[in-house]
Amino acid sequence: MQPSSKRSFLLWCGAALATALTACNKSEAPAPSGTTAASAAEAPAAAGKVLKLAFVTNGVGEFWKVASAGVHAYEKEGKVQVDIKMPPTGAAAEQNDILENLSSQGYDAIAVSAIAPNDQVPILNRVATKAKLITFDSDAPKSNRLLYIGTNNYEAGKALGGEIVKLLPNGGKMAIFVGSLAADNAQQRFKGIEDVVKANKIEIVDKREDNTDRAKARSNVEDILNAHKDLGLVAGLYSYNGPAIASAVEALGKKGKVKAAAFDEEEGTLAGIGAGSVDCTAVQKPFQFGYLASKWMHELVTKTDATLATIPANKAIDTGVEIINKANVEEFKKKLADLKK
Questions:
Q1: Terminal CA-CA length for the chain
Q2: How far is CA 128 from CA 36, 59, 103, 133, 295, in A?
Q3: Does residue 186 have a pLDDT over 90?
Q4: How far is the C-alpha of 341 from the C-alpha of 254, rounded, in Å?
Q5: Alpha-carbon distance 143 to 122, whole Å?
Q6: 330: Cβ–Cβ under 8 A, 6 or more apart, which residues?
């Protein structure tokens, strides 16, 4: 090799080595101080890392089986895995433990139905610093969540309130049952019902919480029916309240004498409608909760900037409700069975 060629070769090697070192330094350097959590979350997808996404419910039950079917539908479509976590007893402390564990394990995005939204703001905000956080079913609007997916619970309450007015056209007294009025979804449903019925001479004379205890949910209804002999209607705000109401009404021989309205599509509620112990239920769209939450989590991690730009101004996506009664319950049950397949 000629001296000039050798010199050129050495210069070329030096330049190549400098380029390689520069590339290494760039890949190992920390993100600039101005980098947001949103843009940082794009890195795992870009680097080919397996995404870690989680869907955290507020308890267990048939309602969440339908939501899980929605999650699984998007898993197939998006070719991702979404881990489903369910607090066994529906206690906020259980959900907090789940959220803490997911956050510490480096999950990229987490969707949660908040059990006690106001009390959970600190933990939700901690989670939001490490993962894309969205809510579904029960919102936590005071937290730093990016988006809420689910029912506009105030409007859903108004829809059920309208059905209650039809059931008590001459006014009367009613009672409401729920797991916890601390939850945003329960508060909004209650307010929606209250705003409609009070304008139609229907008085809410009692309300009882059961803290997701199924046995207490039924005994609460029995206690109220025994205490208020002139009660015209009972209404349940949580999915399992419908079956509890149906059982209590049947056991006390009140079928046809006391009207009943509920939320959601648990088998016991739909059976109660068929048997005449429940008059109607406002069903949400839990399949959409699971499907849309999974889709948004996936896209918030892999297409952060573009997806953030498509979030509605009110940071909410309303999936709506449908009223199920004696006239359409069988058709609805068939549709529901197909969703669970």
A1: 73
A2: 12, 21, 9, 5, 18
A3: yes
A4: 36
A5: 8
A6: 274
What's the CA gap between 20 and 17, in Å, rounded? 5
pLDDT for 3 equals 42
Cβ-count burial of 5 within 10 angstroms (0-12 exposed, 13-18 middle, 19+ buried)? exposed
Burial 240-277 (b: 16+ CB within 10 A, else e): bbbbbbbbbbeeeebbeebbbbbbbbbebbbbbbeeeb
Q: Do 68 and 92 contact (CB within 8 A), yes or no?
A: no
CA separation for the pair 317, 176 (Å, rounded): 27
Model's pTM, two decimal places? Answer: 0.70
Residue-wise pLDDT tens digits, 324-333: 999 999 999 9
Token pair listed for 118? 């106001």
* Bridge pairing between strands 322-325 and 280-283: antiparallel
Q: What are the start-end ranges of the H helices in the chain? A: 3-28, 37-40, 42-46, 62-78, 92-104, 121-128, 153-167, 184-197, 214-227, 241-251, 267-275, 286-302, 304-308, 329-340
| Domains delineated in the chain | 38-151+286-310 (3.40.50.2300), 153-283+325-340 (3.40.50.2300)
| CB count in 10 Å sphere of residue 69 | 18
Concatenating the DSSP letter of every residue in 271-339 gives HHHHHTS--EEEE--HHHHHHHHHHHHHHHHHSHHHHHTTS-TTSEEE---EEEETTTHHHHHHHHHHH
Q: Quick: pLDDT tens for 191-226.
A: 999 999 999 999 999 999 999 899 999 999 999 999
pLDDT of amino acid 4: 40
Query: What is the distance between the alpha carbons of residues 97 and 76, in angstroms, rounded to a whole number?
Result: 28
With tokens 């048997």, the residue in question is 275
What is the 8-class DSSP label of residue 130? T
Q: Which two tokens stand for residue 245?
A: 């109401």
